[in-house]
């Protein structure tokens, strides 16, 4: 019979990213952890981890085994903590992967209130528009814009689909005028994400629903939505932005719509987490907070 302690050790190794770190946290020698994981692999008859001098990588079998076992191990740990403390108070570290501009939509004050309400919870944020590897980076929960493509992760949509539209500042329009057609954008200063070759291709649907596209060389490019928004507010050019993000700027007159007949559908935001069952209470409560704040938008 497989030793359940070896399974728990394997889950800890994956969560901590190395035998040495797992051993340090568990208070046992690293060679003991390595030997017991090897013993588990021998009993299962399959390799769970690819070992190199730089890092550990889950094999396909290891990924599937971890997905099945991690939630059970976490659930047992939670049950032990609750039994020892005599409470179901949320506790522990929650590592969160979010877009780089996350705190422009979820106020830091809300996070402060959450931490004040749950004093035994700690939050660690990974802010990046790149998609984090939930397992390799030990992420407990991730919020991502666009479709949910990660097989093996659990998630749900928390923001409905939106659309992108062209906008510019009144100062830019006063200086350069309004483009009459989509192709006129090639003669304007544009703001966009950076792409190889410094050429941006915008594909949109017109009023008749027919897809059209235009290729522009941006005067200003960046790698976050907020950088592009701020560049547009500063009058640096025309950009294609999610309607949700610039709604307040439009209402305040800080940005004006350009070529409003053209729109690009943008899929909403999803929340993802690697464990299928026994989601830690701290993670569950933090998800509820973020979902509430996003929907208030």
Describe this structure in words.
With 297 residues, the protein is an alpha/beta fold. The protein folds into three domains: 4-85, Arc Repressor Mutant, subunit A (Orthogonal Bundle); 92-160 and 268-296, Periplasmic binding protein-like II (D-Maltodextrin-Binding Protein, domain 2); 162-266, D-Maltodextrin-Binding Protein, domain 2 (3-Layer(aba) Sandwich). Helices cover 38% and strands 24% of the residues. The strands form four sheets. Strands 7, 8, 11, 12, 13 and 14 form a six-stranded mixed beta sheet that branches. The longest helix has 26 residues, at 60-85. 29% of the residues are buried. The model has no long low-confidence stretch (mean pLDDT 84).
Indicate the proportion of strand residues: 15-25%
| CATH topology assignment of the largest domain | D-Maltodextrin-Binding Protein, domain 2
> Helix coverage percent of residues?
25-40%
What is the correct CATH architecture of the largest domain? 3-Layer(aba) Sandwich
Summarize the biggest pleated sheet: 6 strands, mixed
Instruction: Figure out the total of helices.
Output: 9
Q: What would a concise description of this structure say?
A:
By secondary structure, the chain is an alpha/beta fold. It has helices at 4-16, 19-26, 30-44, 60-85, 108-117, 170-176, 225-233, 243-251, 281-296; strands at residues 49-51, 56-58, 92-98, 121-127, 141-145, 154-157, 162-168, 190-193, 200-205, 211-216, 220-222, 238-242, 256-258, 264-266, 269-273.
């Amino acid at each position: 019979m497989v030793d359940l302690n070896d399974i728990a050790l394997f889950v800890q190794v994956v969560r901590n990213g190395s035998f040495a770190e797992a051993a340090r946290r568990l208070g046992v020698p690293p060679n003991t952890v390595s030997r017991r994981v090897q013993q588990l692999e021998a009993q299962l008859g399959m390799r769970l981890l690819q070992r190199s001098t730089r890092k550990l990588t889950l094999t396909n079998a290891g990924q599937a085994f971890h997905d099945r076992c991690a939630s059970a191990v976490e659930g047992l740990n939670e049950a032990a903590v609750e039994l020892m403390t005599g409470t179901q108070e949320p506790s522990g570290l929650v590592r969160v992967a979010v877009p780089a501009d996350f705190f422009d939509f979820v106020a830091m004050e809300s996070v402060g209130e959450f931490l004040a309400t749950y004093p035994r919870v700690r939050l660690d944020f990974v802010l990046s528009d790149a998609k984090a590897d939930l397992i390799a980076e030990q992420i407990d929960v991730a919020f991502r814009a666009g479709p949910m493509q990660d097989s093996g992760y659990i998630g749900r949509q928390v923001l409905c689909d939106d659309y992108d539209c062209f906008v510019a500042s009144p100062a830019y329009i006063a200086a350069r005028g309004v483009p009459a057609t989509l192709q006129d954008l090639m003669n304007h200063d544009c703001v966009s994400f950076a792409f190889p070759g410094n050429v941006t291709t915008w594909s949109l649907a017109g009023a008749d629903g027919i897809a059209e596209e235009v290729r522009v060389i941006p005067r200003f490019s960046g790698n976050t939505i907020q950088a592009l928004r701020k560049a547009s507010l500063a009058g640096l050019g025309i950009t294609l932005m999610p309607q949700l993000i610039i709604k307040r700027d439009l209402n305040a007159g800080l940005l004006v719509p350009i070529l409003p007949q053209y729109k690009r559908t943008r899929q909403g935001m999803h929340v993802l987490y690697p464990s299928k069952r026994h989601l830690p209470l701290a993670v569950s409560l933090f998800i509820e907070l973020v979902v509430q704040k996003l929907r208030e938008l």
